[in-house]
Amino acid sequence: MKKIILVLTVIIIAAGLMAEDWNTAADVSITMSQNSYSDNWAGEEKGSISWVFNANLLAEKQLAAKVHNKNTLKLAFGQTHTQMLDELNDEKYWAKPDKSTDLIDFESMFRFTLGVFVDPYASLRLESQFLDNTGEEAKIFNPNTLTESFGIARVFIKDDTQELSTRLGGAFKQYMDSNLDDNSSDGGLEFVGIYTKPFKDNLIKYSSNLNLYKPMFFSESDAYEDMGMEDTWKQVRMNWQHDVDINLTSLINLKLYVQLLYNEMVIDEIQFKETLGLGLSYKLF
Length: 285
Known about the structure:
Elements lengths: L1 H17 L4 E13 L12 E17 L2 E20 L4 E4 L3 E14 L7 E10 L2 E2 L6 E2 L3 E15 L4 E14 L7 E16 L4 E15 L2 H6 L10 E11 L4 E12 L3 E17 L2
Antiparallel strand pairs: 1-2, 1-15, 2-3, 3-4, 3-5, 5-6, 6-9, 7-8, 9-10, 10-11, 11-12, 12-13, 13-14, 14-15
């Protein structure tokens, strides 16, 4: 199943990029930081090397008079290598790298532009990661969340200065994890709001993506009820992402990423993630 999804994703992206008259964009960047200390360093500091790769790809087109297709793909992967001290031999060595960032997020949305206040839409989204170390063995492209959604969408602003769009509809999610014996699924209501705005002739670009999801049914609801957690899966989940990209030169880029997460099935608190990096970037097209 995962291989089929991966192949379909690659085919859709490749077809979109090779087709004519598509509005395409692709930004690729890599950031890195490094520090090291001599063998006779008396402090407790440790040498480290951190790197993060990011790629954002877009392909959209008005396929017909009343059908618009938009494909987005976000990729991110990073590791931190830390220098450790072998106290027995009094020698330093580089430990196995720890994963710091890992994301695969692809979505294809069809919006039916009927010329009314709102447009019907249907979308398919795949969320995964490159490397999963949670089990006894490392696995690639695991776990996976597949979301099919449909409803109504509205583009409030779309011009050279900014873009604001929202959509509201039903969503069905399948959670596939090869570390588990059984996979689960649920369905409910989903709201998505997307805002992008460039500044200073596209030298600075800000984007925000807010996703709210309210489950209405869950395949494992009976098991959660037996554990006295019948209300846990029913709570609204939030994923709010902010990206700020600053092009200092044609190749040097400053990137800030902030993410706020809330999912009571994971933890009953808002989770916060922030990454700031200076590195090389390249606009493919």
